[in-house]
Design a protein that fits this description.
Layout (H helix, E strand, L loop, with lengths): L1 H4 L15 H7 L7 E3 L2 E3 L2 H8 L7 H4 L2 H26 L7 H15 L2 H6 L1 H17 L12 H10 L12 H14 L5 H4 L3
Antiparallel strand pairs: 1-2
């Protein structure tokens, strides 16, 4: 999203979740995303965005300042708990995964969250937990998060929320759906269009 908004040309290379060799070879640990540019390799999202947002068009310096980011991180963690429990059992059936990477992902994530088949049975609970949190978020959209200007905060929030589109039982309010679709247009976000075209 950041690369798209800043209109920086890039090539997206999709790695399967069970590919440990490539990220370790490139960046020393299994962590994505990885940006490889001009012999510099970074694999922390905020570091990557700080590097590419040279003109501070995403207000990166303000958003990553200690006080601002602490508030945002609290919000993202609060949303993330229910989003991940609700969406992870669905994510593994998207085209990002093949049989081996699906099994690898599921085994890793079930250690922390419990069996996916049990999480699916609790979908209504997770949706119920999200409703007041998303209602509160709506009031903060003016039309962007706590601002009339688009910023890195919106990218971080949208990247958390986007995964809920795959959950059949869940539906965004009109306001949040419009917010996400607007961000999609602003950032030329195509969610690995190259991958979805694979046969």
């Amino acid at each position: 999203m950041a690369l798209g908004y800043l209109r920086i040309p890039y090539e997206s290379i999709v790695l399967r979740y069970d590919d440990e060799t490539t990220p370790v070879k490139l960046a020393g640990k299994k962590m994505l995303p990885i940006l490889s540019s001009n012999k510099k390799v970074l694999n922390e999202s905020l570091d990557i965005i700080e590097l590419i947002d040279q003109d501070n068009r995403l207000e990166t310096k303000f958003v990553t300042s200690e006080k601002t980011y602490l508030q945002l991180e609290t919000l993202l963690n609060d949303l993330g708990k229910d989003i991940h429990n609700l969406a992870m059992p669905q994510w593994i059936y998207t085209k990002e995964f093949n049989d081996s990477s699906r099994l690898y992902f599921q085994k890793k994530k079930e250690v922390k969250r419990g069996p996916f088949n049990q999480l699916i049975k609790k979908s209504e609970k997770f949706i119920g937990n999200l409703k007041p949190k998303l209602s509160k978020l709506e009031y903060e959209l003016t039309p962007y998060f706590q601002s009339q200007s688009f910023s890195l905060r919106d990218i971080l929030i949208a990247s958390h929320l986007w995964g809920l589109y795959v959950v059949p039982e869940f539906q965004f309010s009109n306001k949040i759906h419009d917010y996400l679709q607007n961000i999609k247009k602003l950032t030329n976000f195509n969610y690995h269009e190259d991958l979805w075209k694979e046969k």
